[in-house]
Amino acid sequence: MIKVALLTIGSELLDGRTLDTNVNYLAKGLSQNSFSVANILTCADQIDSIVDALTFAYQQDISLVITSGGLGPTTDDLTREAVAKFFQTGLIIDPEELAKQKKRYADRGREFPESNIKQATFPIGSQIIKNNFGTAPSFLVNKGNRWLISLPGVPSELKGIFQEEILPLISRIFTPEKIAQKRFVFFNIPESALNDQVSKLKLSEEIEVIYETSFPENKLILKSKNLPELQRASEQVLSLPAKEFLITCGEQSMLEVIHQELIASKQTLAIAESCTGGLIGKTLTDQAGSSEYFLGSIVSYHNSVKENILEVSSKIITQYGAVSAECALEMALGVRKKLQSDIGLSVTGIAGPTSGNEKPPVGTVYIGYADNNRSFTKEIFFSGTREQVRRFASYYTLGLLLKSNPKS
Amino acid sequence: MIKVALLTIGSELLDGRTLDTNVNYLAKGLSQNSFSVANILTCADQIDSIVDALTFAYQQDISLVITSGGLGPTTDDLTREAVAKFFQTGLIIDPEELAKQKKRYADRGREFPESNIKQATFPIGSQIIKNNFGTAPSFLVNKGNRWLISLPGVPSELKGIFQEEILPLISRIFTPEKIAQKRFVFFNIPESALNDQVSKLKLSEEIEVIYETSFPENKLILKSKNLPELQRASEQVLSLPAKEFLITCGEQSMLEVIHQELIASKQTLAIAESCTGGLIGKTLTDQAGSSEYFLGSIVSYHNSVKENILEVSSKIITQYGAVSAECALEMALGVRKKLQSDIGLSVTGIAGPTSGNEKPPVGTVYIGYADNNRSFTKEIFFSGTREQVRRFASYYTLGLLLKSNPKS
Question: B297 in contact with A at a CB cutoff of 8 Å?
């Protein structure tokens, strides 16, 4: 595998002001494209620190270093200078790039700030890589068997250039062996239980098995250069008892699958939320185009809203409590009726951190489902923080929708 | 300042499976306690890689290296071995710690797995640091002017030990000079505009000025060892025209301030959301105890919900459109009436990425406010992605609540 080191540059990373999401994005993208990241470094915007970090980075058979940050126009942007110093060369202004930068200001009727000349300056001999997502171009330097690419630190620019320019470029330069992968998303099964089941399969040695947890999902990824073996291993995974907890299989997220299925089946959806406070509606509407099926929701945080808007009878609340299967059922039926949707979903629970004396324990959640043919409830329990209980409950509700949804 | 390097160990960080939040947590905590993080490194669970990284880490006057990860009981947990090799010493089993580990299993009636002996093993001469948050103890090694602390990689354990044990310990060892800070949270003013105004103040050289952007907030932080100068600088900042965009001042977030004020003034709140899909309700209910004032919300994504539940007249929607000041006003009044709250808030807008032909452009959002004495609307525009428009609109709505809220 081609070995890569990542170097992110910026004082805001060292004092914790900014969480570095760039290295994770690059590491994932490189690894998915069959490069191996061997080291990650972060250093300050200082020429000597950057040179020291580059010197360390190229140890251990590293072919390529990718840097991020320090390409802006201000005096503390020093990546160009440090790269030139490391490769023992100078800096040069690229006339074509300078003309572009000047034109950008002229087009807006603004004066060109002298400090912006810096953004048209590059280490001598470097290849300029265009930036369709911002103003600072990226560049590639090669000397002997050492390659270096410098990307801007702004996450949206870095991600755009990486996908559009860098991945095709380094795939041409290094032609890494293609590794195919299969992805399985599980929910509500611990990673260790999944691991135990997968271990018993005794998969071929040509299959690399990777677990990835991003709460509340657990992902299993199989990688191999051998496509028939990969196909066979996937079928083995689908034969496991864990299949009951499989949410999606492939590159799509659960939300994308729900989105497509509801649009395809021309069904509408309404939700009654209590402990999740609006999170389920927010999650569904993260997807553009969700207005095709999502009519809306009633966030009935206070019992008066459950009674007055959702028409949950006060008897139910007095007798069983607002956190009960009975209440969840009435909420689902009520929201379906009031919003005139095909499907009604509901959630009521105790997210914590504390629960009233007579209520069920923190982490108890009831989910209700109602469509034209049937209605039912489900009791779940999740032990965790307030945020985790709410995320778990939202995910569970949407998973239930996916599994219960009568496709047209 | 005492210089620190951080080293995180784990293959899951190098291939992007896990986003490293530990280094950010440590960097922030160290920096707030007057330590300076000079380098951050990430390497694989391999003895030689760890030793190489430690060798690099102690360059440049580093007094202390903090590692995270690789303290578990399995064969790929190699931090203890690597630290011992780096300090040219051996490993030793600590009998007291071993007894504790065995007792933990005995108490649960389980057999002690041999591999767990590893968790009672330490580099010779190290000081054991107890772990109240998990099973792997942390340890401190000192040789000459080189100090090293190894923490477990599980974020909840790392955070707990860092606060409870490490911060007091290193503050005793290194006694860093205390630096005080003042924090100002701004919204809806670009960082560069804020910067221009602050630059003109010509603050004392004893004041360090830090900008921190976490969309949609811009934070300004002033740091100094000189308390009277810091106080004077804070007053200067509060005299800026930017004060108009100041949301909070101090360590509290906007949400925490809203939470306190609504509880103190005994007012209740109801929200009518459209383009935000539930995000505002979700944000308010992130705070435990929000049920004291938040009654609920109507997410009227589809116009039928605006008309049938919020009683927005169909004339308004036909004449002005669902994304209009007129509709926002009716939504705020409607939700206040239907949910019987003291304050009604509403949001309707075009989050994008596309807008219908006859609608206003993507990024246009109307906010409505209604209480017992008055009602009004506000038109805002934000050019950005769907997610950004939704987050900006939510934040703006809550900011408007904070500024408009008639305190009791």
Answer: yes
Q: In what order do the strands lie in the sheet with A217-224?
A: A208-214, A217-224, A180-187, A246-249
**Residue B154 burial (CB count, 10 A):** 19
User: Which residues is A200 bridged to in the sheet?
Assistant: none
Question: B76-113, pLDDT tens digit by residue?
Answer: 789 999 999 999 999 999 999 999 989 888 887 878 88
- Residue ranges of alpha helices (H) inside A269-385 are 279-284, 303-308, 314-320, 325-339
Q: For residue A32, how far is the Cα from the chain centroid?
A: 14
Q: Which of A3, A4, A6, A17 to mutate to test the interface with B (most CBs of B within 10 A)?
A: A17
Kindly report the backbone phi and psi dihedral angles of residue A128, in degrees, each rounded to the nearest multiple of 5, phi listed first: -80, 135
Phi and psi at A35, nearest 5°, equal -95, 155
Could you count the other beta carbons within 10 Å of the beta carbon of residue A74? Answer: 10
In a 10 Å sphere around its CB, with 0-12 CB exposed, 13-18 middle and 19+ buried, how is residue B315 labelled? exposed
**Binary contact (B20, A20; C-beta < 8 A):** yes
Strand partners, A35: A2
Ordered alpha helix ranges (H), B87-226? 95-107, 155-161, 167-174, 191-200
Spatial CB neighbours of A50, under 8 Å, sequence gap ≥ 6: A7, A9, A43, A67, A70, A78, A79, A82, A83, A86
pTM over 0.90: no
Chain centroid to CA B173? 29
Q: How buried is B132 (Cβ within 10 angstroms: 0-12 exposed, 13-18 middle, 19+ buried)?
A: exposed
Residue where the block lists tokens 């993208």:
A29
Task: Give the integer Cα–Cα distance in Å for A187 and A392.
Answer: 9
Helix, strand or coil, per DSSP, at residue B224: strand
CB distance from A282 to chain B under 8 Å? yes
Note whether A16 and B28 are within 8 A (CB).
Answer: yes
Contacts of A277 in chain B (CB under 8 A): 278, 281-282, 284-286, 290, 294
Contacts of A312 (CB under 8 A, 6+ apart): A300, A306, A327, A330, A331, A334
> Are B301 and A291 a contacting pair at CB < 8 A?
yes
Say if residues B76 and B84 touch (Cβ distance below 8 Å): no
Strands B208-214 and B246-249: unpaired
Residues B123-166 have pLDDT tens digits of 999 999 998 888 889 999 999 999 999 999 989 899 999 999 99
